[in-house]
Model the fold of this input.
Amino acid sequence: MITGMFYVTTWPSEHPPSKEEIVEMAADCQGLITLLSDTIDADMITNLPNLKVITQYAVGYDNIDVKEATRRGIIVTNTPGVLTETTADLTWSLIMATARRIVEADRYIRKGNWNVAWGPQLLLGADIYDATLGIIGMGRIGKAVARRAQGFNMRVLFHSRSHNESIAALEELVGAQSTSLDTLLRESDIVSLHVPLTSATIHLIGEKELGIMKKGSILVNTSRGQVVDQDALYRALTSGHLGGAGLDVFTEEPIPKDSPLIGLPNVVLVPHIGSASKNTRATMATMCAKNIIAALNGERPPNIVNPEVL
Ligand code: GLV
Ligand code: GLV
Done:
């Protein structure tokens, strides 16, 4: 397809292309728009010699070897900001669905199990209001999640390794208290993850961390699956230590159909839909277009991840 400015080819399937298919299709391309299911590693970058810009249709870009791209003078862009509120909404959907057992309750009716009008013990869950929420990672999305917690009169703790403000300014801004990771895990009724996936955050929540969490507490993950040791999470859920989990992301996506997590009633599972509102996905698309057009025209793209390349 020829647009006003460029020759454009699009991968026609919902299924991600294999590495070979990307190389075949993009071998001559100067710009590449990628999804987080496309692995753009050093090998791939070597195989795309004309590449000037990689435009990621997501805020996270752990599927791209940015270091290698930078070394080769290739610009990388992402879609920050526009999906913050939408992802915070989804995080809250998971918090509420998990705490109040919404999905289980829906299944209960559909299976024809609602036979007694009102049961004092029926589907009892956990309170959200007045509870303690622990937010790990206080970037844009963490802040948006914290802001929503005020409506529930929650005590909010957070643990954040990187932020632009001083801790005192950040505490003031989000109405929350900064703590060590251990304190956060020990005191929170609900723990929500908002860190990017990096070498420092792989399995940030493992056996030990899950063990420190309060008995009956809830873990919510809308960041990246690999931030949690999923096998350890499964054990913590089946042993009865954790009360439940709300998961948008998984170690392997799509989650294998025989994953034991699928059999657990106290887990709410959604298929990586954090940013999936009609508005936000459209805005992300426009943002990608602006980024790739700017880069190919030799201008500074608005959302550059590796500005040192310029
Ligand atoms: C989605 O996971 C994103 O990083 O935008
Ligand atoms: C992502 O946009 C974040 O900073 O949390």
Notes: The pocket of glyoxylic acid (ligand 2) is lined by residues 59, 80, 84, 139-142, 194 (CB under 6 Å).
